Amino acid sequence: MTLKDSQVKYSISDLSKEFDITTRSIRFYEDQGLISPTRKGQTRIYNQRDKVRLKLILRGKRLGFSLAETGQLFELYDVDKTSAKQLTSIVTLINNKKSDLKQQLVDISAVLIELNDLENNCQKTLITLEDN
3-22, pLDDT tens digit by residue? Predict the structure, then answer.
């Protein structure tokens, strides 16, 4: 971490250690256009905005949001600093994510029922085979 022009700057290894992710992951997020460090030669220099975005990317991943969805939110925020459009979009994304998760729960429950039935049938067949 270095101070320059009264702003805190971070190296890729600073962020990697702080968020416990690989430098490769950080470079990937850069390639996806989600963060945009400045460069001094080959060295990437990250600012507070990049650090906050990285934190939001990781939080979004934990909540099941895709990088594309996270990127959309960043774009909306960059265009609309009042956040009204961004918040509306976030609510829509949240509702869609909740709907997807509820459907996944239904699907998982159905698969578990099928697996239990299959297991019971296998157990019954094993007992029949052992009795013969």
Answer: 544 478 999 999 999 999 99
Residues contacting 101, CB < 8 A, separation 6+: 64
pTM of the prediction? 0.71
**Helices marked H in the chain:** 12-19, 23-31, 48-62, 67-79, 84-131
Alpha-carbon Rg of the chain, whole angstroms? 24
Does residue 5 or residue 54 have the better pLDDT?
54
CATH of 1-65, one of 1.10.1660.10, 1.20.1250.20, 1.10.340.30, 3.50.30.60: 1.10.1660.10
* Segments making up each domain of the chain, as ranges: 1-65
Cβ–Cβ contacts within 10 Å for residue 27, how many?
14
- C-alpha dihedral, 48 to 55 to 73 to 81, nearest 10°: -30
**Which of these, 43, 48, 16, 42, lies nearest to 29 by C-alpha position?**
16
